[in-house]
Amino acid sequence: MKIIKKAILPKGFQANGISCGLKRSGGLDLSLMVSSVPAKTACMFTVNTIPAAPVILDKEYYAGNKLFRAIIANSGNANCFTGKKGLKDAQLMSESVAAGLGIKKEEVLVASTGIIGKPLDIEKITRAVPGLITSLSARGIDTAKKAIMTTDTFSKEITARLQIGGQTVTVSGIAKGAGMIAPDMATMFVFLFTDALVSQSALEKALRESVDGSFNRVTVDGCMSTNDTVILMANGLSGNAAITGGKDLRVFTDALNFINLELAKMLVLDGEGASKFIEIKVKNARTVIEAKKVALQIANSNLFKCAMYGENPNFGRIVASVGASGIDIREQDLKIKLGSLKKKKIDVEVRLSRGDAECVVYTSDLTPRYIKINAEYS
Amino acid sequence: MKIIKKAILPKGFQANGISCGLKRSGGLDLSLMVSSVPAKTACMFTVNTIPAAPVILDKEYYAGNKLFRAIIANSGNANCFTGKKGLKDAQLMSESVAAGLGIKKEEVLVASTGIIGKPLDIEKITRAVPGLITSLSARGIDTAKKAIMTTDTFSKEITARLQIGGQTVTVSGIAKGAGMIAPDMATMFVFLFTDALVSQSALEKALRESVDGSFNRVTVDGCMSTNDTVILMANGLSGNAAITGGKDLRVFTDALNFINLELAKMLVLDGEGASKFIEIKVKNARTVIEAKKVALQIANSNLFKCAMYGENPNFGRIVASVGASGIDIREQDLKIKLGSLKKKKIDVEVRLSRGDAECVVYTSDLTPRYIKINAEYS
């Protein structure tokens, strides 16, 4: 497997990103990603019970059909808590793309991120869509990846090339963070593209495994978003023998796992205001679920995160979090190892002495800059 | 009922607070509170599964006996995650008080607060105990209340005088916060004293109801402590007819509820780095438990707390929290009212349009000062 730290679209995909005026800064805020042929698609969405309008719409489309041609995504407005107008606006986004591409609106997924509870200025989007389509290109992913960013300070992107079923297959992904990051799911957009030919059930299985091992193991602030969306489109243009299970699916899933874990780490690295990247490994738990529970309890502790920011080896914050997780552990069975705090990357190892299961989660520190960003965000 | 915003010890109680050298600052750090006769006592402790040594010891004493004479409490060191030495040290604290007062060690409750994971300098305490006892007085509560403070910026204290069973009964309380405040229980010490004559079961019932309605409804940072301790001592010296149930118990419990809610609000008001005091009322929920769940999800959201600090009316942070709480609510059934953000006290009202239950919780904002305090705390 060859890894390229840049998004390079697989065969048959094109993209584009422009500024349509949603961001007051005038920055890029509207993205379109298109497959030249219908692509088998797997989706996962936030479990927040007040999802944004585009999430509601996508779920509806996805319930009726698994073949998609395009994703339209905007930043600058989440189109959430916007009532009937919001739902209509999300639909208008898919309709305008469908009209321009000569396809059905049910083939166009929609994603929005930004402020919650403000009506979307939909005309800015619909007016911009024809131009967005005209300039689609394989290299357009470089503007598309920027147009989904909000408080992100860098674009998250990666590509893997690997051999499956006698052919070279490409899997590439872009993502955006950077606050409101917490399981389940990690709060973000992740758009993944592959030219692999994969059966629908294998595609969904691979995505589920991969999201569980990546985006559901990172947390920035423990806050769950209303707009999280992960989309994986597979257009089958690489010419490989179809992946339906067995070794080929394992190879494909491993590549997806790698890509998504890298993107997830980038989300944490670019966590709002973050000055530290923290890896928390919980070992010798009874089950992976238990290990994850303890690791996330530590990762979401403001007191722990402040201590990390202060390069303060206050491991009492870890002890209190382990106990707060509710597992019935004896003090003498808990061992904590804290790596150097002077470095940008901090390693925390917690041993529970009660089994063989382990789990790693990633988080950032809590800094005055996080507060500044979110005190002013609107 | 007459309320005095100061701790005035009821009949038969004495206290004292001194500096024994645990705090590097030289500040007051050792408190003793004593009843002249055995007092019926109700206790509640943290549910953290790695409790501090004094919590382990108190639970042991409390399991064997409900009559206590004294509480010894230190700040500057939590005596938590300190192994066998920690347990022995907690026992030495009770033994030294017992020896000085001529009572049994099992009649002396122990509480410690401060840094976790550092051995206690027990000799500083045992050396100081004789002097601590010699200077006990009714007015000594004024130094005792200060010697339990850590990052608190003011002492929390209150007294109620009321008529029960034909006599004037006094109930007074002192508390300390100010970080690591979260249900269950609110992370703190609360020591309550009354000269009322109350049956053991009535005393325990009153304390449970009261803690549920007060300390379990405040949160500063969602972090659960290892040392939380609430102790209510009733020495029966007021001469009232014993409170065992019925109207008298209601009157007593109402007074306790009032006192504990006031102390709980003081904890929030003095939350680490807090610049705002926020009241979150969730109305029209199906059950109180549901209302409380939603209110705490909002109260513990870093994004919400940052917006409050920034006086930023970003009610999207509230929407996202309601949805993250997991209740199955429709967008159109959610109504949010946000009071003026310019004031020190901010009122948030959330209506769920699905029932008649409601719950109020209190929290503070998240500020750069919280981070500074906890980045440097050790």
Give a verbal description of the structure.
Two copies of one chain form a homodimer. In chain A, strands 1, 2, 3, 4, 5, 6, 7, 8 and 10 form a nine-stranded mixed beta sheet that branches. Chain A has a five-stranded mixed beta sheet with strand order 9-14-11-13-12. Chain A is globular and about 65 Å long. Chain A is built from ten helices and 14 strands. In chain A, strand 6 and strand 7 (167-176) form a beta hairpin. In chain A, helix 2 (83-101) packs parallel to helix 3 (122-134). With 378 residues, chain A is an alpha/beta fold. Chain A has helices at residues 53-64, 83-101, 122-134, 141-147, 200-212, 246-269, 288-299, 302-309, 316-324, 368-376; strands spanning 2-4, 13-18, 30-45, 67-75, 108-113, 156-164, 167-176, 189-194, 218-219, 229-234, 277-285, 335-338, 345-351, 357-364. Chain A folds into two domains: 2-267, 4-Layer Sandwich (L-amino peptidase D-ALA esterase/amidase); 277-376, Ubiquitin-like (UB roll), CATH 3.10.20.340. Chains A and B meet through helix 8, helix 9 and helix 10 of A and helix 8, helix 9 and helix 10 of B.
